[in-house]
Amino acid sequence: MKENINRILKMLEEGKIDAEKAAELIEAIKEKETAQTEQTVAHEKMLRVRVLSAEGEKVNVNLPIKFVKASIKAFGKIPININGDTNHDIDMQAIADAIENGIDGRIVDIDTTKGDKVEVIIE
Q1: What CA dihedral angle connects 41, 44, 50 and 56, to 10 degrees?
Q2: What does the CA dihedral 27, 33, 37, 38 come to, rounded to 10 degrees?
Q3: d(CA 120, CA 123)
Q4: Type and span of the H or E element at 27
């Protein structure tokens, strides 16, 4: 945005446009940026964790990526404990790396011999 405003000011300085036109163009740039920011917030990426146990229990956890990044930075892990389940050893650093590198889609897919299923998806 700053670069575009500087171009507008340069055109004003060179007499290619008048002050009124410069103000209109700057306002249009600001409105466009506001709309893009609102759209980005509305489509914020989520980390989705799905657990389906062989007994039929389902757990769905949906976390905004911003929260996940902050949690990993602060705690070194995502602070989720699903009923004390420690059978599914998921590498949180691998998830953090996937998030930082902009990877989308299913990043963990575990099927246990007991029939449990765990999925971790970034979308």
Answers
A1: 40
A2: 50
A3: 10
A4: helix 19-42
Mean pLDDT score, 13-35: 88
- Report pLDDT digits (tens) over 90-107: 666 677 777 778 788 888
- Looking at residue 95, its amino acid is I
120 has which bridge partners? 49, 108
Q: Token pair for residue 109?
A: 């897919």
Nearest to residue 123, comparing CAs of 59, 57, 46, 69? 46
Beta bridge partners of 56: none
Tens-digit pLDDT profile for residues 46-87: 888 888 888 888 888 888 888 877 877 777 666 655 454 555
Tens-digit pLDDT profile for residues 5-15: 899 899 989 99
95 within 8 A of 108, measured Cβ to Cβ:
yes
